[in-house]
Amino acid sequence: MRCVYQLSGLSLLSMASWWLMFRDTPKSIESIALITAIVGFTGLLALHLWMRWVVIPLRYRSRNEKRR
Fold first, then answer.
1. For residues 55 and 59, what is the distance between their CA atoms, to the nearest angstrom?
2. DSSP category for residue 1
3. CA distance 3 to 62
């Protein structure tokens, strides 16, 4: 869960910094780089949450059904 907390913090921090510093110039190199980082952090967070709440519980259920 530590990784999820870190990715959440990085996503929020990146979004806030983009909004405060680069919303007026969305086509600048710095703005595009920060948007790319935001997409990366948010994508990794989504994958972690998908694994945590969908894939791992399904694996756990299938293992328990095989044992019965």
1. 6
2. -
3. 26
